[in-house]
Write a structure and sequence with these properties.
The complex is a heterodimer of chains A (90) and B (367).
Chain A: E1 7-14, H1 16-22, E2 26-32, E3 34-36, H2 37-48, E4 58-61, E5 64-65, E6 72-74, E7 80-84
Parallel strand pairs in A: 1-7
Antiparallel strand pairs in A: 1-2, 3-6, 4-5, 4-7
Chain B: E1 2-7, H1 13-20, E2 27-34, E3 38-39, E4 42-51, H2 53-70, E5 76-82, E6 84-87, E7 91-99, H3 102-119, E8 122-128, E9 135-136, H4 178-204, E10 222-226, E11 236-240, H5 256-264, H6 275-280, H7 283-292, H8 303-320, H9 324-327, H10 350-366
Parallel strand pairs in B: 1-5
Antiparallel strand pairs in B: 2-7, 3-4, 4-6, 4-8, 5-7, 8-9, 10-11
Classes of the chains: A alpha+beta (90), B alpha+beta (367).
Keywords (chain B): Cytoplasm, Molybdenum cofactor biosynthesis, Transferase
Pathway (chain B): Cofactor biosynthesis; molybdopterin biosynthesis
Protein name (chain B): Molybdopterin synthase catalytic subunit
Chain lengths: 90, 367
């Protein structure tokens, strides 16, 4: 993963079910500066053991939802990623 | 003014009303979402809410700006959401709006709670009484990944979609889970079965009155009609249908000859009863029947096998009557026109003719 290209350190936040599966509310992970959303999701799912809910997860990059999984995400040092399971507010 | 807050203490509704108050507003609408005490028969003790605080506030503010662009007359908007443990029957969310007229206030609040359930990153976990495991809830409105995230990367394979969406009416795309799909298939099969069954009934029992109907697509070999008559329980009239496509037709039909052979226990041509009998029988009558039935005949054949052939033919005709002539392809019939009788024409010479005339003249003179 870290073999090619520059990497940046990104904060990862976990909530609800994903927090329970990852067993932590936050973590840090080294990511390439550019990655497609679907690859990113795969990477996070396998790294943090989120397989049971992988099909229902949505990511938020710097507090904005990543709607399109084919989108290319550009990371800067210190960016914030959130793992968002289905919402249940209200 | 927009009031957006995540709170850890009970929400004071009176305070919300104060926030909404405005002299120019004739309407204020307040939605209060409270926690239920039961879920699928399990008693809920309390609910634990958590949020991605910074993003939740951001999304709630976005909802406010969306409301203002949709309903510019809105005066005050309040979105309060409670976090942490919330006992049952307490307010977990309050959305309120004030406006000069009621429709904006009512519609905007309804729109806002839908948006909150869809977009604002807040989660709740129900804690049940007894030994039930607590459960993270999921709003049906919740934002969800758009594509199925199977190992195959669909995004890498762009699929050209035709501009015209002329999908044949017979094709339907269905996106459901396996259980739902199985259920639908079952329903479909059952409905088709019912349809076929009812069609079969119609095939068999159709009214004579509508006999101008085309039955060529019917599989039934018979049609029947109940004709009610006095002093009677049932009067069923049956008629046969000319159906060349039906499964019972032609090739599929049992081999009557074989069946009859079995019944008679006879081996064709091997049993040869008294030759006297054959000779004594006037064959002409049988021949007439045979030619009428388009059977090739051979006078030397065993009389019983000839009769059997006639019987076979009768059975066949019965099964396909009355229009059998149109579709029975038989050996070339023996009904060739009989050779014309040779009548010798006598030719007379001129002398003979004059002698003949003379004879008549003389005769007339004598008489």
């Amino acid at each position: 993963m870290n073999a090619d290209g520059p990497v940046v350190n990104v904060h990862v936040l976990f909530f609800a079910k994903s927090r329970e599966l990852a067993n932590t509310p936050r973590s840090k992970v080294d990511l390439p500066t550019e990655i497609t959303a679907s690859d990113l999701l795969e990477l996070l799912v396998s790294k943090f053991g989120l397989t049971p809910i992988r099909d229902n997860l949505i990511l938020a990059h710097n507090e904005s939802y990543i709607d399109n999984l084919s989108e290319r995400i550009l990371f800067k040092e210190g960016d914030e990623l959130a793992i968002i399971p289905p919402l249940s507010g209200g | 003014m927009d009031h957006v807050k995540l709170v850890n203490d009970p929400i004071d509704i009176a305070h919300i009303h104060q926030l909404l108050a405005d002299e120019g507003c004739g309407a204020s609408s307040v939605f209060v979402g409270t926690t239920r005490d039961n879920f699928q028969g399990k008693k809920v003790v309390s609910l634990a809410y958590e949020a991605y605080d910074s993003m939740a506030l951001k999304e709630m503010n976005k909802i406010c700006s969306d409301l203002r662009s949709k309903w510019p007359d809105l005066k005050h908007i309040v979105i309060y959401h409670r976090l942490g443990t919330v006992p049952v029957c307490e307010a977990s969310v309050v959305i309120a709006a004030s406006s000069p007229h009621r429709s904006e206030a009512l519609e905007s609040v309804s729109f806002a709670i839908d948006q909150l359930k869809t977009r604002v990153p807040i989660w709740k976990k129900e804690i049940y009484e007894g030994d039930y495991d607590s459960e993270w809830k999921e709003n049906k409105e919740s934002i969800r990944p758009k594509k199925s995230q199977s190992a195959f990367n669909y995004a890498a394979c762009p699929c050209k979609v035709e501009e015209s969406h002329d999908v044949p009416r017979t094709l339907v795309q269905i996106r459901v889970n396996d259980a739902e799909l199985t259920k639908r298939l079952e329903c479909f099969v059952n409905r088709k079965r019912d349809e076929i069954n009812s069609q079969n009934v119609i095939d068999f029992k159709s009214s004579f009155v509508n006999s101008d109907k085309d039955f060529s697509d019917s599989c039934a070999r018979t049609q029947s009609t109940i004709i009610k008559q006095e002093q009677s329980n049932s009067h069923l009239k049956v008629r046969r249908v000319n159906n060349r496509c039906g499964p019972q037709q032609m090739e599929m039909r049992p081999n009557y000859e074989l069946e009859l052979n079995k019944l008679m226990g006879s081996r064709d041509g091997q049993t040869d009863p008294s030759k006297e009998m054959r000779k004594s029988l006037p064959n002409s009558r049988l021949q007439a029947i045979e030619s009428y039935m388009c059977l090739t005949t051979d006078n030397e054949e065993n009389i019983f096998s000839r009769i059997k052939k006639v019987e076979n033919r009768l059975l066949q005709l019965e099964s396909i009557s009355p229009e059998y002539r149109h579709f029975t392809k038989l050996e070339p019939s023996s009904m060739e026109p009989p050779p014309p009788k040779k009548i010798r024409k006598k030719s007379y010479s001129a002398q003979e003719l004059s002698a003949f005339i003379q004879k008549i003249k003389d005769g007339s003179e004598f008489t």
